[in-house]
Amino acid sequence: MKYRAVIFDLGGVVFGSPLHAIRRYELANGIEENFVNRLVVSAGPAGSWQRMERGELVMGPEFFAAFDRDVEAADPAVAERFSAEDMMAAIAEESMARPQMVEALRRLRAEGYTVAALTNNWVSEEEREPKDAEEAAMRAEVRALFHDYVESSVVGLRKPDPAIYELACGRLGVEPREAVFLDDIGSNLKTARALGMTTIKVDDPDEALAELWRTLES
Questions:
Q1: pLDDT tens digits for range 68-122
Q2: Strand locations in 73-203, DSSP E?
Q3: Contact, 162 vs 191, CB < 8 A?
Q4: For 5-62, what is each residue's pLDDT tens digit?
Q5: Residue of 6, 4, 81, 2 whose CA lies nearest to 36
Q6: How far apart are the first and last CA of the chain?
Q7: CA distances (Å), 74 to each of 4, 82, 99, in order?
Q8: How far, in Å, CA of 143 to CA of 137, rounded?
């Protein structure tokens, strides 16, 4: 077996995309496309978003106020119609599991691959309750399908820092060249490739999974 492990990003891969939710929020509020993404990048490690994903800020009023200040500093005109709290609520609404990805996780385990999650995420002051029993069961099943679950807010590192990929591979007991990594963000994939991982960009989930099966069979 050429590959021993398949590592998945969560939001935008296994679950609905936060990027799509943010774009809808920008459109609904007359905000230029990719404003939020550019702000996260330009603010850098000291910005509130990256601090939240490293577990240094809890997603709640403290983060909302800090991110709103980041927006104000970047563009006061945008700040007049922007609310970090409303944006994060929009992201939460997008967080349903994609059935085809859940089935892929089951198949990978059945075929003997190690599967792991490698995600930039955050700790919420108040965790969103599942909307119904079906969602709760799906969340629990998805978590249980992973052999390991590497979360930026827990380990204090975030993609694309090479250290978090090395940590994930080390915890799985594989070399980077033995792993396939799926993510929806190019900069995250770039670091993985530089370390020797085989990467798949997830734009369309079905197309990405077709590429995954071809890769594993090659």
A1: 999 999 999 999 999 999 999 999 888 889 999 999 999 999 999 999 999 999 9
A2: 114-119, 148-151, 179-183, 198-201
A3: yes
A4: 999 999 999 999 999 999 999 999 999 999 999 999 999 999 999 999 999 999 999 9
A5: 81
A6: 10
A7: 44, 12, 38
A8: 10
